[in-house]
Amino acid sequence: MTDISTYDAIRAIAVRLVRERYPTAVAAIIGGSFATGRQTPTSDIDLLLLFDHVDCAWRDTLVAEGRTVELFAHDMATFTYFCKEIDAPGGKVPLVMMVMEGGNILAPGAQHAQLLALAQAIAAAGPPLLDVESLQRRRYAITTALEDLVDSAHPGEALAVACQLYEALADLHLRAAGVWSGGGKHLFRRLQAFDAAVAGQLDGALRLVASDLPAGQHAFGQVAAAVLAPVGGPLLEGFTLPAPAHWRSAPAA
C-alpha cells in the first residue's frame, strides 16, 4: 500500500491536481509541513499557484484524492501586493515563507525564478520597525497581562492569560530584533530558530501554569522581564493613549 503521507506521494497528488484543474499555472509550490519535513499522516497540502495573470487573487480549500488542499492563487502583482501591503505590516509573511521553504513541482521557468527572488528580497528586508507608540502599547499590554496572571488564583483564567502572554512576548521578542514573526505553530518555530533559550523558557512557563500555577507565574515573570528589558522594561504609570478626535457619535436627534 502506498504511504500517502510521504512527500513524493503528496507531490504526485498535487501535480495531478494542477494538471487537471489549473493547467495555465506557471509555478506550483508545495509549502507548509510537507516542505519542511514536519508532516503528519493528516497534514494538509499547502499549495501556492502562480499564473501569468489573475483577475483577483484567491484562496480555496478543496479535497484532492482524499487529501485536504489549502490553495493560494496569485500572479506576480497580487503576490507582491499581499506580501508587502497586507502581510508585512503585521510582521508576518506566510506566502513569502511558502515560496522560500517550498518546492516548485512544475517545470522550472523564469516566472518561478522571479517569484523566488522577490520572496528572498522581502524576507531579507525584514519586518517594519516597531515605532515608539507600538512598543509602548506592547509593553503596557504585557505588563498588565502579567499582573493579571500573577494575581490570578483561578487555573482556567490563569491559563487563558498565559496563552495571551506567550503570544505577546514571543512576537515582541522577534519584532524588536527585526525578525519576521508568525502565527500559531509558526510563531514557536520562528522564535525557536531565532532564540532557542527564550523559546524554551516560554514553553516551560506555559506548561508550568497548567501544572504548577505558582511556579508558572514566577517563570512568566522571569521571561517577561528578559524580553521587556531591551525595549524599556515594564510600562504602567505614564502610559497614555488618546483616541482620535473623530471617534464620537453624532448627537441624538
UniProtKB/TrEMBL annotation:
UniProt xrefs under SUPFAM superfamilies: Nucleotidyltransferase
Protein name: Nucleotidyltransferase domain-containing protein
Any Pfam family: NTP_transf_2
Coiled-coil blocks: none
Signal peptide per UniProt: none
Origin species: Janthinobacterium kumbetense
Domain Polymerase nucleotidyl transferase: 17-54
